[in-house]
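A reminder from the course coordinator: this example appears on the midterm review sheet, so study it carefully.

Given structure:
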């Protein structure tokens, strides 16, 4: 056989092998729901079956008819695995009493031996809550440690973003004690303050965040965990204190006055510059902590300042913040690298901000003020 024929034969053999592999993949049976649940249960920790149940509920979150179909399918499959999933789904359906009752009526007719932790779900013990806050104040991560059936530990976390209305943008659950979860995160995170909080306060904060609209992109996994987080939060004690505004207006005005007494404020001589700075500080966050995201929210889009602020003063907003932020960060002990990152964003946005303001002024007939 010539070399060319051998090369052609080898090429054909490789092609045949690829086709055979493709056929095998196509013919391989997709795992059934029973298979998926069995694997989750075999992993030995409740978190995996709780995850599946939460995903199932999320799939029908805004469609009652779809939830009915999901439950009908589960009820129609009578085996230990689907019974276990149905039992966990029933527990997590905290906002669907009719569907929850339907599940429990079906479960009462079955005689499956289920893991003990499933029957112990109503008695879940949440025992610790911690708040992790970035020093620049963009977000709070609330972390809750819980225990199932006396020994199965899990940690649930939600991230509340304060750049847009303090809604929840991320969340999840891990099958680890809260101490281990916090220690692991601490290894890779810096510039974070960690504060213990009461379980009641954690409930108040999270429930308040649940009702806030979220316009920022959320993490892909967060909606899948929402039913699980809602279930756990409703097991926390009531009576907690909601998150308060971080800004104290008297303190903000004092900070503003202190800044204008420094050499850094020397270029800003108009009395309206003080009004402009107070306008820029007018939100729920600490006036002495500025992140890149906060700067972008302040001057990155269309801005509408009060009428008494002249256009020539409003145009100074990027320069005013560029002078103010290093001063404010020095008062809060923010390290220089973070300040430099924030100032860099200011510098990037400066020109586009001024173009936008001038464009608005021209549209409104105010450009003769400059």
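Designed residues:
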């Amino acid at each position: 056989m010539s070399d060319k024929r051998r090369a052609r034969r080898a090429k054909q053999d490789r092609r045949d092998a690829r086709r055979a592999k493709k056929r095998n993949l196509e013919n391989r049976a997709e795992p059934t729901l029973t298979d998926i649940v069995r694997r989750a249960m075999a992993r030995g920790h409740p978190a995996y079956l709780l995850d599946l149940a939460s995903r199932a509920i999320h799939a029908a979150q805004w469609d009652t008819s779809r939830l009915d179909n999901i439950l009908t399918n589960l009820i129609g499959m009578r085996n230990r695995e689907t019974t276990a999933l149905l039992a966990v789904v029933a527990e997590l359906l905290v906002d669907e009493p009719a569907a929850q009752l339907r599940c429990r009526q079906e479960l009462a007719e079955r005689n499956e031996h289920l893991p003990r932790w499933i029957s112990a779900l109503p008695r879940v013990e949440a025992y610790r809550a911690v708040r992790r806050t970035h020093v620049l104040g963009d977000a709070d991560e609330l972390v809750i440690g819980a225990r199932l059936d006396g020994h199965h530990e899990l940690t649930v976390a939600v991230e509340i973003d304060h750049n847009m209305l303090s809604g929840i943008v991320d969340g999840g659950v891990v099958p680890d004690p809260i101490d281990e979860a916090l220690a692991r995160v601490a290894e890779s995170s810096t510039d974070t303050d960690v504060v213990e909080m009461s379980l009641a306060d954690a409930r108040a904060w999270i429930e308040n965040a649940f009702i806030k609209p979220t316009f920022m992109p959320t993490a892909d996994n967060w909606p899948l965990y929402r039913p699980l987080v809602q279930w756990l939060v409703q097991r926390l004690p009531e009576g907690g204190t909601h998150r308060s505004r971080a800004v104290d207006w008297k303190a903000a005005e004092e900070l503003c006055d202190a800044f204008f007494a420094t050499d850094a404020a020397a270029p800003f001589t108009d009395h309206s510059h003080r009004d402009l700075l107070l306008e820029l500080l007018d939100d729920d966050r600490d006036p002495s902590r500025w992140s890149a995201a906060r700067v972008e929210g302040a001057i990155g889009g269309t801005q509408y300042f009060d009428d008494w602020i002249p256009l020539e003063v409003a145009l100074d907003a990027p320069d005013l913040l560029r002078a103010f932020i290093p001063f404010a960060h020095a008062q809060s002990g923010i390290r220089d690298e973070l300040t430099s990152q924030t100032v860099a964003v200011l510098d990037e946005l400066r020109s586009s901000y001024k173009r936008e303001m001038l464009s608005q002024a021209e549209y409104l007939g105010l450009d003769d003020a400059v």
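The first helix runs from residue 3 to 27. The mean pLDDT is 88.
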